[in-house]
Amino acid sequence: MWLKLLCALFWLRVVLLKPQLDEDCELYATDTMHDFCCELHYETPQFSDCQTDWHDKIHFTNEQEEQIFMFCTAECTYNSTEFLAANRQSLNLRNVREHLESDLADAADEALLYETYVKCGKHALTLLSHKGVQSLAKRLAPHGCHPYPGLVLECVANEMILKCPPKRFHQTPQCRVARDFLRECMQHLKYA
């Protein structure tokens, strides 16, 4: 029952309210960070631990606070996996590759996810100058968080929703709605 209600609410938000689709449309879909719709991109123990840590620090009651929570969780996750470089604006791709090599058995899956991290690391850099991201950075600053890791995680989640091998995609209503929104949104994005 709750799952149906959540899916209906997500559908109303994304489909009926239809945010304006422009080059920032992916920023309107912050919920996709929660959506592990592809078996290749799953909720790691580090992500779960960071969610717990940040839930104790940020008790969100609205979408802006939830976005702060998710972006700080992303930075915590990438710090704990050592994916995030010291400058907080790039990925340590060697660590990403080593993690994927040890975590994924299939070379094609590993290559797909690695290339996604490369693409998303570059894409996140291009978003840092956007007005919406600069506004987000100001909201993150009091918590000591930077937008780059969250932008990477959001991009990876989006890419995995869009490019997941069909047999690995979770055919839930929420994942299908997210994928349909992102397919429409991608027509407006300018990826690096």
TrEMBL record:
InterPro entries: Odorant-binding_protein
Record-linked Gene3D superfamilies: 1.10.238.270
Cellular component aspect of the GO annotation: extracellular region
Record's keyword terms, sorted: Secreted, Signal
Annotated signal sequence range: 1-17
Subcellular location(s) per record: Secreted
Domain of life: Eukaryota
Family: Belongs to the PBP/GOBP family.
Protein name: Odorant-binding protein 46a
Primary gene name: Dvir\Obp46a
